Amino acid sequence: MIGIVMTTVLSFLLFLALSIIVYVKNRMRRKKIMKTTVGVLVFGIIVMFFIVYAFMPTITVPNMLILNVIVAVLFVPLVYGGAKVPVQYQTMHRSLSGIVILGVAVAVIGVFIYSILALQDSYDSISKSEEEEARPLNEENTPISVAPESARNKVQKAMSVVPNTQFYDLGKLQAQQIDGEIAYVAPVEFSSFWRYLRGKETEGYFTITATNINAQPEFVQSKMRYTNSSFFNHNVQRVVYGKHPDYIQSGDAQIEVDDEGKPWYVQTIYKPLLFSNRPDMNNIRVAIVDPVSGGVETYDSANAPDFVEGSVSSELAAIENEYFGKYVNGWLNSLFGKKDVKIPNESGTESSVTPIFNEAGEMFYFTDMASPKENIDSALGYTLINARTGALTYYNGQQNQGIMDSKGAVQIVNKQYPEKNWTGTMPVLYNVDGHPTWIVNVLDPNGLFKQYAYIKAADSDFAVFGDTAKQTLNAYRLQIAQDPSSVEGSQGVDLTEKSGTINRVLVTSTDSRQSVQFLLEGETTIYTVNTSKAPLSIFLKEGDQVDMQARIRDNGTATVEEMKIQGVN
After folding, report:
1. What tens digit of pLDDT does each residue of 177-208 get?
2. According to CATH, what is the number of the domain 495-565?
3. What are the angstrom distances between the C-alpha of 523 and each of 105, 275, 327, 465, 537?
4. What per-residue confidence (pLDDT) applies to 489?
5. Separation between Cα atoms, residue 167 and residue 194, nearest integer Å
6. Where are the domains of the chain?
């Protein structure tokens, strides 16, 4: 409430200045002017209090200038009319009130111009770094999540378990790690104003595992009075505004659960650059609201409690991507020369970004970057933004150049099953054994999960579909091993000396390649050798003795780099 009162009072500074000028210049009507001004001021403050209460404008220089202009335009004429002050038309620079108005107009223009120039300062405030490529995907801990659309569909079907279901809708899904497992958390929210008046409290929240396509949602009963859908002083955004009216709130508050299962509303806030509303990425904070008591605790984003995964909202991450890509060489360059400009794609699941988790359980926002030139569907690289610190890492190594972007990967999936109307969603670029690979969820029209798609980012014809992440990954790796163009396919796997007797042989031929697959006696590892590397391998037969150097993986496949066949070479 203090923040609302403060904002209301600050919006009347120009009104007071002009009213004082009217009072000073009209000696014969001062009593009437004073009485009218006080009356208009009281009336105006009441009106503006409700306006500020409803819209919660942040206390920043641009916002206060606009509010002061609006208040002056609305209420100063009431002072002139109520006190019957004659209006004298003079050249603006010869009138004191004209000089004040001119000064305010210049200030508004100046703030507008500075806001454009501040784009470069906002870009400079981003903590950023560049790396050649991401680490290879870990097969034992693949951070592949179920698309939020699919998870939301399941939770919607489970809403009947909520007491007084008719009062509620499902709130925003938030990815989070709970007890070492990645899950989606979604609060139950009021469906309307009247439901809020009747219910007063929501019933709790849902959780559903984000890495198991067969997982079912679980409802956790936990009464919450302060929520996003509550009204008046029980609204989370209004609670945060009351404590931090000078901070801009980024997106809606999201729910996160602590180690004891207690839900909290987490709201990202940031201090804008002086004289503008542009974000200062060095001044990101997070307000954590107790949904039972309404208490607010505020932290620097990196120092939030450990249970908070997303100190930085997806909305702010999207802004950070935009500024990083467009304003690398300033605002004018983003319009004309466009040197080094990169445009973030909008294929993400939340505000054009996609939350993912690494092996350490840290959450990042993924976005691929494309060229500003039209009809170019190749990616320039991709960014990962740390969801707690806001630090941005840009991956633009040689392997990531010339690959298709996320829109191209989704289009490949969409064209695969046109008769079923299955579509691709949540495309994420991973490094699989040295190959940039798009991993896409395939959903039916009802949002139900159907398949995973692994698409080689450098070859639109190289796509593998499967029912589970691990099954599809193994099939994809096996197909890569058979591709003679995949010279880097075994990156990160050491060479091993191997010898044995051939047990089974299979020759695979296509228009572009020929490879030989075989088993050794007493083993189940599938060895693959390209005839371009070992031409005599085409003559392999059962019983042959071989000596070779191979890269053997844990998934039961191996790529042969060198091979000698006894009696043949």
Report:
1. 988 889 999 999 999 999 999 989 999 999 99
2. 2.40.50.140
3. 82, 70, 57, 27, 19
4. 47
5. 9
6. 1-120, 148-228, 312-396, 403-482, 495-565
